[in-house]
Amino acid sequence: MSMENIAGARKPAKREDEHTVAGEHRMMRRADREVTNPEQIAAIVAACDIVEVAYADAEGLTIVPLNFGFDYDDTTGKLTLWFHSAPRGRKLDAIRAAAGGRLPVAFTMQTDCEVVAGRTTCNWGEAFKSIVGNGTASPVEDLDECRHGLQTLMAQQAHMPNVEFTDAQVRSVTVWKIESDYFTTKVRTKPVPRESAAAATTSRCAATPPPVKPS
Predict the structure, then answer these.
(1) DSSP-assigned beta bridge partners for residue 79
(2) What is the three-class DSSP state of 33?
(3) In what ranges is there compositional bias, type Basic and acidic residues (predicted)?
(4) What is the mean pLDDT of residues 49-53?
(5) How confident is the model at residue 25 (pLDDT cuts 50, 70, 90)?
(6) In Å, what is the CA distance from 145 to each residue of 8, 152, 164, 181?
(7) Which residue intervals of the chain are DSSP H helices?
(8) Three-state DSSP state, 150
(9) Sign, Cα dihedral of 45, 48, 49, 50
């Protein structure tokens, strides 16, 4: 089994003994694709434009793609996603109908997706960077907290981190958030073509001077 050196510790490329246990989250099977570095996680979230949010309400299961802003606490590992919407609609109806105004949700986002051709049809795949998790959606009532949520949205979607909102502007929309309970980050990198790898090896060899023999 191949091994990978991560943060000074070697771990298996695959975990083959994971299984579902009620109330617990299984570890990612492809350990070699799991990302745990906080800076890398934040960079992947920042590179995503859309998050898909899934939830169940009185009408059944549904999933909706949304623009978002975010805060990521690299100390606690907590991810907070921020959203704005019209005052009414299915999402907000579901949140308000949930116990305590807190709706369990699942979410996922992806970036850098690219088809990877294989030598046979069974060897084709996809390079990607992704976040998958679950958490709790709730409405935001505090004016300053709403303003912060809108600022994260502008920073994420328009790359404008210092936008100021008047109280009237903040009150004109509904702000809500998802606080993560658990999420994982996974990356499958695009393999280097054999020709490129061979050329890089040749280049490194050519750039290395031959050893000098002692006279």
Answers:
(1) 72
(2) helix
(3) 14-33
(4) 98
(5) confident
(6) 40, 11, 13, 20
(7) 38-47, 90-97, 143-157, 167-171, 194-207
(8) helix
(9) negative
Q: Domain coordinates of the chain in residue numbers? A: 38-190
pLDDT interval class at 64 (50, 70, 90): very high
- 167/41 Cα distance (integer angstroms): 33
Give the model's confidence band at 7: pLDDT under 50 very low, under 70 low, under 90 confident, else very high: very low
Select from 179, 159, 194 the least CA-distant residue to 72: 179
Residue type for 122, please? C
Instruction: Say if residues 29 and 16 touch (Cβ distance below 8 Å).
Output: yes
Both tokens assigned to 137: 């959606």
DSSP 34: B
* Structure token digits, residue 3: 């091994």
Q: Using H for helix, E for strand and C for coil, what is the string for 155-197?
A: HHHCCCCCCCCCHHHHHCCEEEEEEEEEEEEEEECCCCCHHHH
Is 50 exceeded by the pLDDT of residue 118? Answer: yes
Which residues, in sequence order, are CB contacts of 174 under 8 Å at separation 6+? 84, 85, 86, 87, 92, 139
- CA separation for the pair 36, 110 (Å, rounded): 16
How many helices (H) does the chain have, and how many strands (E)? Answer: 5, 9
How far is 14 from 18, CA to CA, in rounded Å? 10
Q: List Cα–Cα distances, 201 to 103, 191, 193, 204, 206, in angstroms.
A: 53, 15, 12, 5, 9
Q: What is the CATH number of domain 38-190?
A: 2.30.110.10
